[in-house]
Each structure stands twice: as C-alpha cells, then as structure tokens.
Amino acid sequence: MEFFKPLVTIGIPTYNRPKGLKHTMECAVNQTYANLEILVADNCTEPKEDVTKIVEVHKIDSRVRYVRHEKNMGPLFNFEFLFSNAKGKYLIIFPDDDHYDDPNLIEKYVQSLELAPAASGAMATVDYIDSSGEAFIRDEPPYQLDGSLIERLRVYLINNITDHIMYGMFCTHYVRDYKFERDVYTPEKFLILHLLVKGPIIDCFGAGYKNIYSFKTREEIDRLYNRPPTKNHHLLWVRRAYSCLPFFQALAICVIYLSIKTPKLSWPIRKVLQIPKVHPGRTHFHDPITPKNRPVGK
C-alpha cells in the first residue's frame, strides 16, 4: 500500500556527548524515509567545536538544522525547544546516547500512524543495553495503550509501562506547547500521561531501538535537573487523573494507584485485582552489568 509521505522531525537533544552525537546523526541521515527534518538542539556543549565539526559533516544534507543555545538551560528546556520548533507532522526524539540502527525505523512508524489518525503516538520495541553491550531487558508490543481513555490510563498508571514511550513517534501538534512538570523525579511520566489523554498510543511491530542504559545515582539525577524534587510525584499524578476523567472513574483509578504504591498494600491489591507488576511485553534477560560490577578485563 502506498502511503502519503508527511514531513517527520527527528529531534536530537545533545550536550557534551560528541561520540554519541556522531552515531545518532549517522542513524538519522541514513533512514530510508526521505522526507525528514533533522533538528539538532545543542545545550551549549563546550568546547563548541566538538559538536559543530560533527554537524558540518552533514551540512551538505539540507534536511539538517543545527541550533546552539547560548547557555545550558537544562534537559527539559532542550526537549521543549524541540517540541516547539519541530516542523514535521510527526516528531521522534533521538537522544545522543542511544542507538537507532534500523534504517527503516521512521518508515515503519509513519506507516503505523497514517493508518491510525486518532492516535497521539506510536511505540516500538526497546532493548535496554547494559555496560557490557548486552540487552538485559526488552519491552515490546503490545503495550495495550490503544483502548478507551480510562483503560489506557489504567494500564499506564498501574502496570508500570516503560517510560521510554516518550522516545516513540508522536503527533507534533499535541506537544507543540507542552511544558514539562518541574521538580519531580520522572517528568517524562507526565508527558506520556498528556499524550494518552490526547489519544491512543498504538503499537509499532517489527521496529525498535537500543536504549544505552545510564546507571545514575539519585544525586546525579538531582544535579542533572539542577535541584532535588519538591513535589509529591504520586499525588500530582492523582490530581492529573481527576482532571481528565469522570469523577467515579478517576476515584477508582486513584484508589488503586495509591494502594499499589503503598508497600504493605501493593502485593495483596495486585493479587486480588490480578494486576501484573509489569506489562506482559517485558522480558528480563539477566541482571544488568554496571560499571561497578563489571568483571575485570571486560
């Protein structure tokens, strides 16, 4: 079947990772899907030449657009910049530390979304890669986020669906003016919640990418976002659920959600209601090899 070829923006947020950016740029320009905008947002990498010499290699490609911020505004600002400046009908984020080696990835996503006009986005398979270069977890479809509003919120809030859904492909107009929740540990969860309210997130089979897992301490995460969190993550989620559902549906989800997040109630509630701890599409291969437990010489 022949598909209309809408413009797709590949947004590449980067900061002080020239080696990763080089690989990510190659993954982007080598996609078989041709109608692309490749937007690189540099959060003031120093020295500047580490990034510009990589971008210059691809300057012959008119699809590449490079923007450097005058100072490091933090990762959330960089994502918001990509959201508001993307020109494509669809947007996908290629972080500068992950691997998007499938040259047909964009093609597969576009085909899935063009067949589902009500969808807000699509998600494929993600392999989590540890420091040995091996996958220790795989998340793959079906994610079960394509039902009614209450059903997809229930599945996402309760079944621990991967937060890497934000690195799938989604409709740009739904995030054009989106602002991340500040002062929480996992701001990406609220973006996904926002997208689920706008429409289903559909499965994209036969496609995927590799998340090069970063083993950060809580202190490192606090430094990354410039400050420790000051907002109660779970209560904020509950408030959001109330704002987009009828009262009794919101109440039911909130009671279940807060119960399973309470350590002494979690197991019996999941047992009685037959709620899986993780979604059925997750495969755990082995405990991850981290820089700290990696064998000598490996």
From TrEMBL:
This protein's name: Glycosyltransferase family 2 protein
Domain Glycosyltransferase 2-like: 9-141
GO molecular function: hexosyltransferase activity
CDD domains in alphabetical order: Glyco_tranf_GTA_type (cd00761)
Keywords from the UniProt entry: Transferase
Lineage per the UniProt record: Bacteria, Bacillati, Cyanobacteriota, Cyanophyceae, Nostocales
Domain of life of the organism encoding this protein: Bacteria
Signal peptide: none
